[in-house]
Amino acid sequence: MNKLSLWLAATALATSPAMAVSPPVKPAPQKPGAPRDERKYIDPKNMDTNVRPGDDFYQYANGAWLKTNKIPASKTSWGSFNELREKSVEAMRSLLEEAARNPKKSRLQQMVGDFYASGMDSLTIEKRGWDPLKPDFARVDKLKNMTDVLNELAYQRKQSNGMLFSFFVGQDRKNVNKYLPQFGQGGTTLPDRDYYLKNDPRSTKIRDAYRDHLTKMLTLVGDPQPAQNADKVLQLETALAQAQMARVEMRDPYKTYNKLTVKDFDKITPHINWVDQMNRFGVKGQDTVLVANLRFYKTVDSLLVATPINDLKTYMRWNLLKGAAPYLSSPFVKQNFAFTRVLTGQKEQTPRWQRMSGLIDGTLGDLLGQLYVQQYFKPEAKQRMMVLVDNLEASFKEHINGLEWMSADTKKKALNKLVSFKRKIGYPDKWKNYDGVVVKRTDFFGNVEAAGQWSYNYMINRLGKPVDRTEWGMTPPTVNAYYSPVNNEIAFPAAILQFPFFDANADDAVNYGGIGAVIGHEMTHGFDDSGRQYDADGTLRDWWTAEDASKFKERAGKVEAQFFGYKVLDTLAVNGKLTLGENLADLGGLAIAYDAFKKTNQGKGNTAIDGFTPDQRFFLSWAQVWRINVLPEQQAQLILTDPHSPGQYRCNGPLSNIDAWYTAFNVKPGDKLYKKPDDRIRVW
Prior knowledge:
The chain is an alpha+beta fold. A hairpin with a 2-residue loop joins strand 2 (166-172) and strand 3 (175-184). The protein has helices at residues 57-68, 80-101, 107-120, 122-128, 134-141, 146-158, 194-197, 201-220, 226-243, 247-250, 262-268, 274-281, 294-306, 309-324, 330-344, 352-363, 365-376, 379-401, 408-419, 444-460, 508-525, 546-564, 580-597, 601-604, 614-625, 632-641, 647-655, 659-664, and strands spanning 77-79, 166-172, 175-184, 258-261, 288-291, 422-426, 482-484, 489-493, 567-569, 572-573, 628-630. It has 28 helices and 11 strands. The radius of gyration is 26 Å and the shape is globular. The protein has a domain at 131-328: Neutral endopeptidase, domain 2, CATH 1.10.1380.10. A 4-stranded mixed sheet has the order 2-3-5-4. Strands 6-8-7 form a 3-stranded mixed sheet, with helices on one face. A two-stranded antiparallel ribbon has the order 1-11. Helix content is 52%, strand content 7%.
């Protein structure tokens, strides 16, 4: 699943003093009789017109907004996505509070309303302290050998508490109509393996803070040797981190595709009988599994043998405590947040009502989503989106047909994949009903557990059944979009279909520069460095000629190099390999959206609105989508973990490769973002 957040930036070329430099672009006078917005979809008050567009278009388009929109104390960033998410969570709060106080509830309202009420009942939560966790601790206390440990790992996974490694059910990438048991790497707490393995000042500081956090959390549950046991946990997690693949490696769908029989899996891990372990997981009749990282499981096997049973028990207690802490009394919540502050720089805890709204969206999302759609989603938005998707698809077809570097045979297959895209807009055609989940108004922790158990059982029950391609990977209140390679589908939840991405009353330039580029972005994911390896049915297979694949990699390599050139914080730079898929999607999406926009009546004309031409409004709309302020601590973490580039580069990076942007803003040699025409990268 590809989360939406783009960041492309161009390399500043060396300039000669003799080169002409373009002046700042200010709004042109409004023509008499030209259409005007009551709402300023492109508001000059948000801009910094003292900056030349060709030097830093992101700052030119957003400079004033960035200065006046400081990051709230309870946030780690603030930008267009955050504004919409705030609006979405306020909407969820309204729905949940109404459901909680309504005495004549439907089943749907009862479940989400009582869940919300239980989570807002801080008095009861404080009174219980960490009592809800004590039965699980008692189970761990009784473990005596490795068989006991494996039993407990399975029991906790069935409660949705994953430990040591990742187990889930998903589609077989080479047989996408079938679900398979799958095993991934896991078992660590810090956001990336590098935090365990690197010795730079930033990594060392976070490791030290984590050790302190572990000690304090273990102290809260009465551990007799919290500091020593914190070291034991860190030692075990470091060993797991050493065996993990790096994030860049994990992006390769072939490297993480290791299909083998359960018996062969047993041979890799001689001390773990996977037939027995799958039985413990509740998996029956499956003789084949997918394993992402075989080396990781060899390490898991060795650690289970080499680690003293008491250290394994400490590790398991920590994982239970870590997973439960947000739902326990305030000492646990506060200590959890204290460590979050170190990782992200966030200054204040997120308000309880926001945390509860997000929790219910994540656990009973289809129930809350139904209420959200009924109240906030307009049918005309879905209709308008269908037209936009049609137009973007038509533009993409033209782009593929016009590719000089691709052979006719590969073009034919690429076009077949494009027209095979499945579209999901707004909300699912059918909803999960969460049968069997009992929500009690007086048992917050029990409600969290019940939702986790239902989620696990729902996942396991997929085995042996046809793949349900109507299912969504996001809920309607989610401000995001995604492309699924195994389903060859693009999805746009209801909450993203709002300004600045989309507004039914906005001019086409605004909508195509916003949601149009987002649509193009998700479409292009089907043809990025990873997505291109899946065919029209979603099957992982090579459908490219060797020559075409080589030419694609050559162009993608230029995008990779461009982004490696962007510095973010002190010694940190954008990882061009980690962000390659998103950067390709940004570049392709913007180019495709622009050409689709040029087929609209507004795009064919040159009538200014608020002093900006149609083309200028298109590119300004693109820029304002990616405006964001980010705390430095959070930015440092994102550089390691996020496959998206920072907002500034998502804006500037693609633009420096788009000829029409140069024309629209009179960008010339000497401007910092200027690239010679032959150096501008064109992939799709």
